[in-house]
Amino acid sequence: MTIAPDAARSESPQYRAMREALESLEDTVPGKFEITKTGMVHDMMAPSAPHELTVARVRRRFEKVMPEALVAHSGAPDVEDRPEGILRLPDIMLIAEADMEGQGSFDPRTLLAAVEVVSRSNPDNDWVGKMRDYPLLGVPVYAVFDPRTGTGAVMSDIHETPDGPRYATRRDFLYGEDVTIAQWTISTDGLPRYEDQ
C-alpha cells in the first residue's frame, strides 16, 4: 500500500490555508476545486456530456488492455503532494489497485499515467496548469484529449529545466488514430466532440 507523501517534508502555510479553505467550501459551493502550483482553480461548470462520455470510453478502452491488477480509475480521491503544494483530480488515473488502498489522497508518484479531457470552460487548466504540475508531482506520463479540436497529446520523459521538472517528449494525435499512453495502445475512434467547434 502506498499513501500520499508524508508531511515529514514541510508543507507551506499558504498551501495549508488553501487546503483548509477548499475543505470548508467543498460541500457548499458547486464545482471542482484543485490547488495548483500558482493558486486555486475552481471549475464551476459541471462536466458536459461529451466530456463525461470521453472519460467513460477512454477508461473502458484502457481496462480492456491493461492487466487485471491495474485500474483506469476516474473519480475521487485526488492526488496530492502537500510539500509541493499541489492537489489535482485527474479525469482518469492509471494506477495499480494495490496503490489505491488506504485513506486520503493517492500518492501521485504511484500513477502510471494521468489522463485529462479538456474542459470547454477552462482549457488552460489542462494544457498549461497540469502540463506544469504533473511533472512536478512525478507523474511519468500525461495524456490530454481535446474534444474542442478532436486532437490530443501524450507527454512523457520528465527532465529538469531551469523552471523545474518538465516533460521532454510530446506526441500529438488526431481523433481516429490509435494512441499509446504509458505502455498501452487504445483507439481514439468514436470519441465525441463538443458541438459548435
Automatic annotation (TrEMBL):
UniProt cross-references to InterPro entries, sorted A to Z: Nuclease_put_TT1808, Restrct_endonuc-II-like, Uma2
Ranges that cross the membrane: none
One Pfam family from the record: Uma2
Superkingdom as given in the UniProt entry: Bacteria
Domain Putative restriction endonuclease as annotated: residue spans: 22-156
Protein name (record): Putative restriction endonuclease domain-containing protein
Source organism of the structure: Streptomyces polychromogenes
